[in-house]
From TrEMBL:
InterPro entries: UPF0473. This is DUF1292 domain-containing protein. It holds the Pfam family DUF1292. It comes from the Bacteria. The lineage of its organism: Bacteria, Bacillati, Bacillota, Clostridia, Eubacteriales. It comes from Oxobacter pfennigii.
Amino acid sequence: MGDKNDILILTGEDGRELELEFLDTLIYNGKVYVALLPAGEEEKLEIIIMEMRKSEDGIGEFYSLGDEKELEAVFNEFKKKAENELRTSQNL
């Protein structure tokens, strides 16, 4: 990614909009997950992990993870991926 990450605007079931900064994508156990950060809240660093699925019309939809074990496993995979990318960039 470049200097500026993509900003996504997600609309919840209640109609509220939430601006999120896209951080990364990960495929884990055959599912696609995204790591997001609330836009403009750098001091909090609360990473949001969601599953991304395509609807029948081909549009990407984001779903919260309800299973704590799944959330923890995916978060750990994102951490491993970030650590590997950091090590690789330091070896260049």
